[in-house]
Amino acid sequence: MKNFSKLITLTALFLGAIAITIVSCKKDDEKTEEPNPQVYYDGTGTIGSNGGTIYFNDDTSPINGTYIVIPENAMGSEQTIIISQGTNNANFTGSSDIIVVEFEPDGLEFSSEVEVAIPYAENFDPEKLTVFYYKNGSNKVDVMPISSIDQTNKLIKFKTTHFSGYFTSEDGLPCPGTPTVIDEDGNVYNTVNIGGQCWMQENINVGTQITAPTEWPQPTNNNQIEKYCYEDDPANCETYGGLYLWEEYMKFSEAGSQGICPTGWRIPTMADFDALVNYSGGYGYYNDTHLHLKSQTSDWGYPGDNESGFTARPGNYWNYNAIIGGGAPWMDVGAVFGASDVNNYGSSLVVGFGTENYPTRFNGAVSIRCIKAEGGNYNQAPTIPVLNFPLNQADVSLPFTLQWSSTDPDNDPLTYDIYLSTNSSPDELASGINENTYELTDLNAGQTYYWKIIVDDGQGHQMESVVYSFNVTGSENLPPTIPASPSPENNATIEITETTLHWACTDPEQDPITYNIYFGASADPALLEEGLTHSSYPIDNLAENTTYY
């Protein structure tokens, strides 16, 4: 029900018009020719708006089997595209087995995704692969999400919107471009790529050893990194790294910070550990994940297979709780890795006879394994979009604005695709939106709609929200516009004793509107006529030398 009455009813007369559409005539057996996409087999081809496919077929080349499929309208103009083998700098990529594939022109951008397939080394495990691409023509790399793997032809497939140089690495190899890293004391550590995360392969051993206390310490920021060595033996720090209290390994700073890690690296979060463990098989007791994370060294009572390359060593930890109970402070539990999360002074990942996530304080000093600072991945994905309005199953009235939120750990500019329809799997409504709001005005009252958001960081990462529904209960009825464009105009002078009043007014919803006219020689004119359905009114018998309102 409308909450106010609309005066000033506007009626419109629509005159019919005859539209004639002229179409071309053809015989039934005439067929319209569809443009055929071009197909090339020698690694070079000229592709236009019709799209096409280029294969690199040469049995003698390491990049044999490489191809690119360019869909129709992905290119605005013709381009000559060349596929070639790039130079593998083994010191950079981490292995002489790695095959580098280049596409020219370098940096070419497409208006929609193209499919690329490149070969990987025959000795690589297809279940442990990561695709890297060179960023902006530099020696910095980022991770390219994998679409599928063709194990028969040893091809790894992905989708991209721009050309670069690409190569496939295997988990357990050094991080491309960063095979080693040095801490502030000059200690050198190897690195390892695991599922697109770049980890130090050894526990950090930086700082000055102090004797472990017999009661809970009160760390103070003396601008010096202090560590314990297992059983107060410095040889254990050399083998297993130092053991650090949360305040010390965080350098008395905030969660997510560099802490005691080298420049360009940081203390991992529990989310980083979760990604590592889930990629390696998942949490659990007596499952195989701990074997994949553990080293093959004999200092484990039950050595691992180290399939991941993480190479966890049994550094154990110093435990205050044991002191309280009258026991020894040195706990032989395996490997305990500290996280930066501020949750009662830190969280931990424990690798022993299983893999366990301790989201609350582990009362003691633990090992630290640093992760590359760009979020652990070479470029971290944005957060999953949160749908802020309307909430799930909410009732809304038009007009209203969709609202959502997402952030990017690397501060990459984000764009959003909006999906909305009456289907529980909503269709795309708009794409490439730079804002996190979108106004809706043209929906059907009494209808249930479903919506979701997909965010894109422009670095090959897309994150998809959950699907929410909302019910449209109706529209908020808006008032008509204020009457305007009066004739005669304000303060006008006329030389006759009759005239016709004219004005203009519209209604946003095209509701019928009516008018009440107030007219007279008083500044507060009386009602002259009401319920008019048109925007003009004749006036006569006007007195000379008189001002009317």
Describe the structure.
By secondary structure, this protein is mainly β. The model is unreliable at 1-34 and 323-327 (pLDDT under 50). It has four domains: 38-170, Sandwich (Chondroitinase Ac, Chain A, domain 3); 180-372, no CATH class; 386-475, Immunoglobulin-like (Sandwich), CATH 2.60.40; 484-539, no CATH class. A hairpin with a 7-residue loop joins strand 22 and strand 23. Strands 1-3-4-7-11-10 form a six-stranded mixed sheet, with no helix packed on it. A six-stranded antiparallel sheet has the order 2-5-6-12-8-9, with no helix packed on it. Strands 28, 30, 31, 33, 34 and 35 form a six-stranded mixed sheet that branches. The relative contact order is 0.09. The protein is built from six helices and 40 strands. It is elongated and about 115 Å long.
Short descriptors:
single chain; 549 residues; mainly beta; Chondroitinase Ac, Chain A, domain 3; Immunoglobulin-like; six-stranded mixed sheet; six-stranded antiparallel sheet; 6 helices; 40 strands; disordered N terminus
Structural class: mainly beta
Task: Please indicate the count of domains.
Answer: 4
Rounded Rg: 35 Å
The number of helical runs is 6
Task: Give the fraction of residues assigned to helices.
Answer: under 10%
Low-pLDDT windows of residues: 1-34, 323-327
Biggest sheet statistics: 6 strands, mixed
Q: Terminal Cα separation, in Å?
A: 35 Å
Shape: elongated
Strand order of the largest sheet: 1-3-4-7-11-10
* Percentage of residues in DSSP E strands: 25-35%
Number of strands: 40
The residue-averaged pLDDT reads 83
